[in-house]
Amino acid sequence: MVLQRLVNRFRAPAGYVVTVAGAGRSFEVARRETLLEGARRAGVALPFDCTVGTCGSCRLKLVAGKVRPILDFAYTLSAAELDAGYVLACQSRVRSDLTIEAPPGANCGPARATFGATVSAIERLAEDVIGLHLTLDRPITYAAGQYAELSIPGIDGGRSYSFARSCPPDGCTAVEFHVRLLPGGAFSGWLADGARVGDGLALSGPAGAFTLRAAPRPLLLVAGGTGLAPILALLDEVAAAPVARAVTLLHGARAEQGLYGAERIAELRASWPAPFDFVPVLSDAAASGSWHGATGLVTDHLAASSAAALLEDADAYLCGPPAMIDAGIERLLALGFDLAHIFYDKFLESSHYGQASPSAKCVTTGAMK
Question: Buried b / exposed e across 229-239, counting CB within 10 Å, b at 16+?
Fold first, then answer.
């Protein structure tokens, strides 16, 4: 058996040819390279971010051929995406010639810079959510929906959080993040108990591809917990655009004290030039005896009248815990939604990463058009 494996290895080709469908471009991947490594060596622009299989930004559709996953794709990708043939380029060992589909306009990896940051304000947004306001040492430019990595002395590695407000094209020095307080969380514990206005930290960014698509379609937005942060930034960006887009926003929390952002959402709705429906949802209504609104899982309300009205021609943006994202995608597909118009951002706690990445969240692009 060992001898046969050695013979097979000797006979194996030096590399495989990968063709990018619709792009008229091919490149070769060596046997010991991942699909992403081969593309980068050949100068082919494929999207990527973390390179360790947790963020999903390198998600591509495998049209033909075989790959072997280094890490299980199911850790990051949904069942629907796996069924549709999506793989993670950074975790794919190529085992035959391939044909892949890459998103149009994909850029080759993150362009990050490091900024000095000073805490300018700390505000309690909800029982377990803190708003962290920072002033940077120079302007940063980012797209709504992206995130940055925050680092402080004494804590190994950075923690990644989405920008909670949009940024003008010429950049900004004032930025905001929403941080969920986690039991035993190093960064959130520091923020809750030790951080003070004037404290310094480092910010690296921007990163991520959870950004608005150009098509002026209606928006179906689903947020769980602090997944509301990038959704609010997206709404800021839409509000500044010349084209009016109808919006249905669902925000889920366990109990009423976990909901936040109602005042800011009300301000947006008051000046919105198109229909704007907001539905807060509690999964544990018993913990909020005075609650008379929607209850259950936030994804259960995707079939409500306002959300269902958008199903045929909307773009869906989902942001929050992995279980919510997976349930939301499954529910939308069952309702007839097109996978190509579903975009999401999975938030993972740092404990999910092990030693591979200390980030506190994981940004994932949605399905490719």
Answer: bbbbbbbbbbb
Global pTM value = 0.76
CATH architecture assignment, domain 2-101 = Roll (3.10)
Looking at 3.40.50.300, 3.40.50.80, 3.40.50.2300, 3.40.50.1980, the CATH number of the domain 219-352 comes to 3.40.50.80
What is the length of the chain? 369
3-state secondary structure of 65: coil
Under CATH, what is the fold of the domain 113-207? Elongation Factor Tu (Ef-tu); domain 3 (2.40.30)
Helix (H, G, I), strand (E, B) or coil at 189: helix
Mind listing the pLDDT tens digit for each residue in 182-221? 988 899 999 999 899 999 999 998 887 788 987 889 999 9
CA separation for the pair 121, 148 (Å, rounded): 18
Which residue in 231, 286, 221, 282 sits closest to 252, CA to CA? 282
Compute the radius of gyration of the chain from its Cα atoms: 21
pLDDT tens-digit map of 41-83: 887 777 777 777 777 778 889 999 999 998 888 878 888 889 9
105: alpha, beta or left? (left if phi > 0; alpha if psi -120 to 50) = left
